Amino acid sequence: MPRYCLGIRGSTSCIVLETCRVSYLPPLRDSIRTIGRRRFDFEHQIVVMGIVNRTPDSFFDGGQTFALDQAVAAALAAAQAGADLIDIGGFPFSPHTPQVTAAEEIDRVLPVVEQVTASSDIVVSVDTFRPEVALRCIDAGASVINDTTGLHDPDLADLASSRGATLVITHSLALPHQHHRRPQYSDVVTEVKAFLAERIQLAIDHGVPESQIVIDPGHDLNKNTLHTLELTRRLTEVADLGLPMLAAVSNKDFVGEATALASSDRMAPTIAAATICALNGARILRMHDTIAAVAAARMIEAVMGFREPAYLHHNI
Predict the structure, then answer these.
(1) What angle do CA 257, 261, 262 make, to 5 degrees?
(2) Considering the chain, what percentage of its residues have pLDDT values greater than 70?
């Protein structure tokens, strides 16, 4: 039976019906997974995925990791900071950025994948919607295909099936690199959940087992800030699909519009949004600031009872 605390107004005590719980626990299937060279228990872990955008026009860093040596250094720094995954991309999602050919995208991401996998056991994810890019990166050592276009090209599912790669399926309505202006939903959460359920089945029909699928509700992707805030509040409804969920909230527009902060000042509200997502069922947090994110993840795990404190001294 679920257990809750009921606070009493004006008092620090609580009425305990059975025992207290501080968060929702998603009904995960296949929660223990080996991805790349690491093993995960998504029932008892909050995992951080670092981000390396090898693009000259990244919305966050403005191209600071566009140079190959800087991109590799950033990925290895994320691993050193405690991230378990690193997401490497060479084609911005935003349609406001210039088009990048498949050959250019491969030239950007493949050398990073090769050098990072040669130097670290961090799980490498390639952020792409193109099967030809994903294939080259998987063969070079990447273990995850992060498709932010909602499996627009089912060949990605065929590739994940044949190579044993983990496939991230994201809610996104527009065609790759296309605008979806003024998005409308009658119930954004219900529609996101239904979309993901349909795309999960599509991946399964193409031979991808559930044990290789991760879902992403697509914060801000073809959604306005009100949609994304509603999605964050009701994220448990999406997590009820029963597969590990990734939340990509780092420094996004909804964080800025909710707080009126510039991208460079959004770390604190980003951590707050990521924490809410974790308490509502997310198990992978895709974050720019891996040091802060890993510290937050360890704290969330301790509060949720997933891990013991690092040490005990206070009042002992």
Answers:
(1) 105
(2) 89
C-alpha to C-alpha distance for 236 and 26, rounded to whole angstroms: 7
Predicted pLDDT of residue 146: 98
- Please list the residues that pair with 15 across neighbouring strands: 6
What does the pLDDT read at residue 13?
40
Strand positions, DSSP E, the chain:
5-7, 14-16, 32-35, 38-41, 47-53, 85-89, 123-127, 144-147, 166-170, 213-216, 246-247, 284-286
Of the candidates 88, 86, 125, 84, the one whose C-alpha atom is nearest the C-alpha of residue 105 is 88
- For residue 117, how many other CB atoms are within 10 A of its CB? 21
Please indicate whether residue 223 is annotated as part of the active site: no
Mean pLDDT of 193-219: 98
Reading the block at residue 281, the tokens are 């069922």
Which of these is catalytic: 252, 266, 283, 298? 252
The verdict on whether 193 is a catalytic residue reads no
The verdict on pTM exceeding 0.70 is yes
Three-state secondary structure call for residue 285: strand
Q: Write a three-state SS string for 166-208.
A: EEEEECCCCCCCCCCCCCCCCCHHHHHHHHHHHHHHHHHHCCC
User: Which residue in 139, 25, 145 sits closest to 85, CA to CA?
Assistant: 145
C-alpha 131/C-alpha 303 separation (Å) is 40
Extract the tokens encoding 289. Answer: 């600031």
